[in-house]
Amino acid sequence: MGIEQGKISRRQALFLVSNAILATMVLYVPALLAQETGQDAWVTVILAGAGGVLYGAIVVFLGARFPDKNLVEYSIELLGPWAGRAVGMVFGLFFLYLNGVVIREFSELLVSLVMPETPLVVFDILIVSLAAYGVYLGLEVFARVNEILFPTALFVGLGFIALAIPEMEFYHLKPALVHSFPALLRGSVLLLSFYLEGTALLMFYPALRRPEEGKPISYQVGFILAIAILVDILGVIAMFGPEEAARLIFPTFELAKTVHLGGFVERIESLIVGIWITMGGLKVMVFYYVSVLAFAESWGLRDYRPLVLPTGMILAALAVLEFADTNQIRTFFRCVPAFTVTVLGGITVFLYLITLIRAKRTGGKTDKDD
Amino acid sequence: MLRKVRKPLKPSELKMRKINARLQELQPKEVLERPISRDLDYNIKLMKDLFGNSSDLVVREFHFGSDKEIRVALVFIDGLVDKISLSEAVLKPLLYRTIVDEERRLLPGNAFELIRDWLITFASTKEVDKVGDLLDLVLAGFAAFFVDGFEYALAPEVKGWKDRSIEEPKTESFIRGPRDGFTETLRTNTALIRRRIRTPRLRFEMYQVGRVTKTDICVAYVDGLVNPATVDEVKRRIESIDTDSILESGYLEDFIKDNAWTPFTLLDRTERPDKVAAALVEGRVAILVDNTPFVLIVPAVFTEFLQSAEDYYEWSESARSLRWLAILITLTLPSLYVALTTFHQEMIPTGLALSMAAGREGVPFPAVMEALMMEITFDLLREAGTRMPRSVGQTLGVVGAIVLGQAAVMAGIVSPFIVIVVALTAVTSFLIPNYSASLTIRLLRYPMLLLAGMFGLVGVFLGLMVILLHMASLRSFGVPYLYPITPAVPAEWKDVFYRAPWWKMDLRPLLLRSPNRRRQAPGQRPEPPPVRPERETEAVVEGGGRKDGAGGNRNYTSGMENKVNTGKGDD
């Protein structure tokens, strides 16, 4: 008996997870990877993609094992009321914190690139209000909106990169495979840490109309993300070269700036802001939803909606207070893999192992066997 | 000491009780429950008392029979009955024929039966014994026929009043398509639908709503094509209405829509019987209200408001996409103008930016004020245009176009560009076929303008997101409002962004959950006849223009006993 009564289709879940991961990945990853691995970034995409699909398999295994329960509900079932609730709270708090980072990133982007004279907190509050409205309306609603906006945004984004091709210099991609394996591995762990955000799926997996058919989500997400990020990174590096790309704060945005068409359509990078508002807004919505739902489940509430407003206030404040400036965000992204992998990866793998042990103890069959 | 305490009523419940106590019938129940008396004078007095000497109540008393020993009275409402048929079918036979035949002579003892069975030559006649039922009939245009000494009354249906003839609908005019429109008479309207759908499974179920007006409301659907749950839901919502009056379908709309507070219209309404017939065959429910030509169609989704029934008669692939463009322009063009001129000048091509700057040079207001002023002016003009007498329409056009447009620019109050923007918005907003939807979109321009004035493009996109989220949260009788865009059903987009030819649209819409989804045989794509060189003439005659002959049609059996082939349009 979950809180969420709405039902979503598999495609909606797939797009939600993909959007939730991709929205910030596209912003920061090209620069970070260019710094780490230069023109060999595509190798890390493959490595991280493999890791991501593996992790995704664990996630959907958990989801399919408990098709009518979300992560907090079955951690309570597996670990008992106290430890289970603690795990739920940690899960919710983690997404709350990460969401603050995401909101900060988007506000930062809007301030530094579009409206430099507006204070950051304005955009911060705007994004949080938008997300709060979406979360208040419920999973079903923002999953549906995401279902049309994510493909549109992806299409427009790829269109931008395609339009920038005439400006690209593909010799920047050579020589291939000059970076050391540890560097590549570091890069792929960084990328993988973004993939781990897909754990959010476990909070709305039971809302799937047919949970038993949810397994392909893992590799479909991996595929969509790998293609999108690969095109993005290759485009950025071919455009600016690895050194320049590493110095830029928002290389994808800089890429969009170079687009011009027929001598008439120029400087249309503000349009790409539109894409980020939609993608970013939806990403914030998903994380926001996951954290309020996790809190509500942990405290045994009947509805998560009373938590939307207070959580929104905390989020808006958190986004301002977390960092002093953009440099700190970049520094944070150096350690974010450790943070994400230990907390999110830790919780998921832990629950996975417990489920396996339980299954073995009851002779390969749990009470909730499929 | 433990004592069982009665749970106190919640304030809201208490309030409801008080309100219900005050809500009483206009007509005391005990009068309506009363049986019709044997005493003719009493009956006449009762009717006169009930109507309080209203001038349109006609009571005619007369005697007939061979010795004029039978007293009868005729009561009807002047203006609601057809007097010619009343005198032809009711009065004449009574006054002229005193003897039915040899065995049956008209006597006070058997008058009622004889009149009922032999004399009144009217097709539909009812027999009632309660005052209340009789009142309802009289008020609906029946005549009441009392016979002294009998506790029954006869009510021949002699309805007939002045009504508008069937004309072309004023609000939805077509180049190609049927020209008949609904009228204010419910029966005429049902007939217009029945003529288009010749199956006994087309059902018209009547309800009466309104404590005072007692308005007839008719729920129409095609049994076997409609999802029974939808019909039940419609009935449930109509039955739960408790109000004094329903004067137009708009009253009903407010009571039965899913989401009370939304600027969007959640029900489709039309004056065109062809549109209603198409909706019924698709598996929707139509709600007809007496005294209005506007019929409601449920469930309705947003994409429908961009479809005109004419799209299905005169095929034009660009019309739909033009309308989508129009809706986008109406919603965003003014706010984009404001956002670009205020915050993102760099996005405007240099040459254009220079001339825009020159145009705005003497304008004392910020762009957002300028846009708001002009948009409000336009809305004022439009509102004035709809309300004003037709003869002064031209004056308004002159005032609007020259005085407000030209002069405002020359006086330097607004820039010429905003006039173009407003004019374009005005034109595009009328491209949306559904008037209510067009009003909604135009209303939403204002918050969009304010957002653009404050936050530039960020505000515009934010506003669009909020609108989208709101629309995605709406439902019309359980069907998501943005269906089939989202929840995405790509197979049905062929009727959303353009209009696929009829032979492609094999299935009824998915989310209407019709028990009979297939509407026509598949594979009816027309093809030129196969060329057979040796017997060319025969091939043309026999080929029938279809690859498999008419095989697809022949093998196909519809779930309905009466096949409704929309693929062919009306016969």
Task: Give a structural overview.
The complex is a heterodimer of chains A (370) and B (571). Chain A is mainly α and 370 residues long. Chain A contains 14 helices and two strands; from the N terminus they run αααααααααααββααα. In chain A, strands 1-2 form a two-stranded antiparallel sheet. In chain A, a hairpin with a 3-residue loop joins β1 and β2 (265-266). In chain A, α2 (41-65) runs parallel beside α7. Chain A is globular. The two termini of chain A are 18 Å apart. Chain B has 571 residues and is an alpha+beta fold. Helices cover 43% and strands 11% of the residues of chain B. In chain B, a hairpin with a 5-residue loop joins β1 and β2. The A-B interface holds A 9, 11-12, 110, 114-115, 118, 122-123, 126, 130, 133-134, 137-138, 141-142, 144-145, 147-149, 264, 266-268, 270-271, 273-274, 277-278, 281 and B 343-344, 346-347, 349, 455-458, 460-462, 465-466, 468-470, 472-473, 480, 482, 485-488.
Shape of chain A: globular
| Straight-line distance between termini of chain A | 18 Å
Could you give the count of β-strands of chain A?
2
Please give the share of residues in helix of chain B: 40-55%
Strand % of chain A is under 5%
Mean pLDDT across the residues of chain B is 84
Helix content class of chain A? over 70%
The major pleated sheet of chain A works out as: 2 strands, antiparallel
Number of helical runs of chain B? Answer: 18
C-alpha-based Rg of chain A, rounded: 20 Å
State the low-pLDDT regions of chain B, or none.
539-571
The shape of chain B, in one word, is elongated
